[in-house]
Amino acid sequence: MQKVNRDVLLEKAAAMLDAGEVQAVLGWGAGEFAYDVTPRVFETSDELRADFVWNDFCGANLSKYLVSKTKKLEGKLLVFLKPCDTYSFNQLLTEHRFEREKVYAVAVPCEGMADVQKLKALAGDGISSIESTDSGFSVTTIYDDAPVEVKGADVLLEKCANCKSRKHVAYDELLGDEGEVLDSNRFDEVERIEAMTSEERFAFWQGELSRCIRCNACRDVCPACTCEKCVFDNPNSGAENKAPTTSFEEQMFHVIRAFHVAGRCTDCGECSRVCPQNIPLHLLNRKFIKDINTFYGEYQAGAEEGSRAPLVDYTLEDLEAEDVFKKEAE
Amino acid sequence: MQVNEYKPLIVAFCCNWCSYAGADLAGNNRLNYPADVKIIRVPCSCRVNPMFILRAFQRGADGVIICGCHPGDCHYTSGNYYTRRRMALLFSMLDFLGIERERTRLEWVSAAEGAKFAATMNDFAETVAALGENKRLEDLRCKK
Question: Between residues 3 and 42 of chain B, which touch chain A (CB distance below 8 Å)?
């Protein structure tokens, strides 16, 4: 259950819209079901009152939408940012992807967001209503009148279960508490894979990546992937649709996708959240983050606006490529 | 004489200013290195996009080596420093995905190091030959 109530956010946004201080509000809008909350731009306070949502299913990171939405607006855009979204916000600002003056950022504390897949696994398919309780959710399905009680901690999104920080690193206004950087175990899974043999690792990734359907959702949602022309959109590559590809194309796509955001990835976890095939894509990004931390010193993308990403920087004493595996063994 | 003796196919990306000249020197000095090494000239080792390396593997390369100027000697001042960071991360990632780490290498070869070029290529070809064919990254569509 989120600490700050929906009404607090709603009143804030509605007041600013009505006063003309902002031209539109970027928030989360209601979908058909209680759990399919989608990012949405609201232009009037009536729209806001009808459809604005702030609950445990607002996992979507809104910062990437600022790039396209601020271009179309004359005035300001109010945006709600969870702590992990503020890292992406900073990273986009560092890369000059939108104008800071056109955005009014409202930071909202977050207690972790729920994963509807996990919820369905515990409560069953055909969810008709979800009530928030003190410890989690009370879920009713169309097959059963009695609600199922589910603990909130059991259905957290992967990115929230291994949350790196509840600190807001950028905002104009803060609703609620500031939050702190957390000690997370986010590299545990990467270490587990590193400990496997080469054959096991290959088999593991072959199994995961061969499920890829090349829907490009991971690329489209990623706040670090904001190129207007993408290398993967080349119609001549033969890789833009799934049918003619072999397993190689998936490896190629995922290695390059992860490499293109290496050093700029804030580990917001959106890639694996949106993956329809549940591929643990965040592990590839975390591998790069972990390596960068070991080889070139601790670096958190987006923690500070204007910081220099490790791959556009160098020192004279950098590690040689052949010493990589020696360093890892230490 | 064995008819189907396995010989690894090796792609070497050589920077125009140092390593390519180093390869030239190796040739002028009549130093032997395997004919299976295919050299691709690039303006700077920094020009090598990680995608080039994966594409080479896709098209049937068994090993990929990138050669550039020694750190500090880059014709463009700092290109090879970026290469060093990129390749360190890429090689580590390929290893993470279960690709044999011996199949990729980054070496610094200057224009005066013809002997080092030949020795490096001999050594790399031997290492790759010991691993055998690259089965994990090849694309079957590209096989004739």
Answer: none
Query: What is the model's pLDDT at position A273?
Result: 93
Domain count of the fold of chain A: 3
Quote the pLDDT of residue B140: 56
Got the DSSP string for A294-317? HHH----TTSSTTPPPGGG---TT
Mean residue pLDDT of chain B comes to 91
Whether residues A244 and A129 fall in one domain: no
Please indicate, yes or no, whether residues A146 and A79 belong to a single structural domain of this protein: no
Q: Is residue A93 part of a domain?
A: yes
Among chain A residues, the shortest Cα distance to B141 is held by A246
B58–A295 C-beta distance less than 8 A:
no
Mark which residues 223-262 of A lie under 8 Å from B by CB.
Answer: 231, 244, 246, 248-249, 251-252, 255-256, 258-259, 262
Would residue A183 count as lying in a domain? no
Task: Please state the ipTM of this predicted complex.
Answer: 0.91
Rounded mean pLDDT for each run of 10 residues along chain A, 330 residues in total: 89 94 95 90 94 93 94 93 95 94 95 91 89 87 88 91 93 90 91 94 89 88 91 71 61 89 93 93 95 94 92 92 80
User: Which helix (H) or strand (E) covers residue A7, if one does?
Assistant: helix A6-18
B112 part of contact set with chain A, CB < 8 Å: no
- DSSP β-bridge partners for residue B45: none
Find out whether A22 and A66 touch, Cβ atoms under 8 Å.
no
A205, A167: one domain: no
Same domain, A234 and A269: yes
Same domain for A143 and A169, yes or no, is: no
pLDDT digits (tens, 9 = 90+) for B96-116: 999 888 999 999 999 999 999
* A64 shares a domain with A16: yes
The answer to whether residue A182 is domain-embedded is: no
What is the domain extent for residue A254? 188-329
Asked if the model's pLDDT at residue B3 lies above 70, the reply is: no
Q: Which residues contact A223 (CB under 8 A, 6 or more apart)?
A: A61, A63, A64, A88, A91, A92, A266, A268, A270
CA dihedral A99, A102, A107, A113 (to 10 degrees): -70
Q: Quick one: pLDDT at residue A238?
A: 59
Collapse the DSSP code of A290 into the 3-class scheme (helix H, G, I; strand E, B; otherwise coil) and give the result. helix
Q: What is the mean pLDDT of residues B6-27?
A: 95
End-to-end CA distance of chain B: 24
B95 contact residues in A (CB cutoff 8 A): 198, 201, 325
**Cβ-defined contact of B89 to A200 (cutoff 8 Å):** no
Domains, in order of start, for chain B:
10-137 (3.40.50)
Q: Kindly determine whether residue A201 and residue B97, on different chains, have CB atoms separated by under 8 Å.
A: yes
